[in-house]
Amino acid sequence: MARLRAPNGCPWDRAQDYDSIKGLMLEEAYEVADAVTSRDFAALEDELGDLLFQVVFYSQMAQEENRFAIDDVVEHVYAKLVRRHPHVFGDVQARTPEEALKSWNTVKAAEREADAKERTRVPSLLDGISPALPSTLAAYEIGVRVAEAGFDWERAEDLLDKVEEEVRELRGELRDTTPAGLEPGATIEVAPEQRLKVEEEIGDLMFTVANLARFLHYDPETCLRRANQKFERRFRALETLARDSGKKVDECSLEELEGFWQAVKARERK
């Protein structure tokens, strides 16, 4: 990486800065997640290398400014792992994964409190959640943090009830603003002054679903990515059925498209 960034190195690598490669870092992280989801270990090996390259890239740029180097990054995470595992490297006992997690979270809480004091502000359990996280992961992390303090649902059924409550509130908001908006085939149009309220209700629903996934020990981002992949797979198959019938998708009626869709689902079930 130092050679690539050197005066006689690669013009593209030399032209990059902290902001220009942020998208690449996120892209590589998602490609790692995709390889894990599909259990494609050859791809996982490759994608982990690509992700590591981004870590090295950032570290090289920081070293050029005398901020830190890759060695500092590794030593920092090494020290953090030792510090946050007193049940392994210290005297704390942890016999179960739950006890180990409690030990880890106790250390993290102490770190957040120390950081808040250093920044002269009131510490919060929600300190350190990056605003750059995808919203589903941020919702997941918020749920994890507040659950540490005992602020959580008791049963999955309670969360399902909450999901249904949020759906009812969204239906009610749409009904109040567009009485015909929920009729079959009608276009839902929301007046500008009501858009923020509808947006809020949709957000509440999505936040609750993300925390339902967390409560059931699923990663909501992975759940949604799987759903996206399933829909894409089925829609591509639908497009094939439409072509086989001699039509393009946009030339088919809604009834025809629904028939193709059900045929694809039936074929998958078989």
Mean pLDDT: 89
- The CATH architecture designation of the largest domain is Orthogonal Bundle
CATH homologous superfamily of the largest domain?
A: MazG-like
Major sheet size, sense and barrel closure: none
What does the model show?
It is a single chain. By secondary structure, this protein is mostly helical. The chain contains twelve helices and no strands. The protein folds into three domains: 82 residues, Orthogonal Bundle (Helix Hairpins), CATH 1.10.287; 90 residues, MazG-like (Helix Hairpins); 51 residues. Helix 11 packs across helix 12. The chain is globular, with a radius of gyration of 25 Å. The mean pLDDT is 89.
Q: How do you describe this structure in short?
A:
This protein has 270 residues and is an all-alpha fold.
Please specify the SSE layout and strand pairing.
Blueprint: H1 2-5, H2 11-15, H3 22-38, H4 41-64, H5 70-83, H6 86-89, H7 97-118, H8 135-148, H9 156-177, H10 192-215, H11 220-244, H12 254-269
Summarize this structure as a short list of keywords or feature phrases:
single chain, Helix Hairpins, globular, 3 domains, mainly alpha, 270 residues
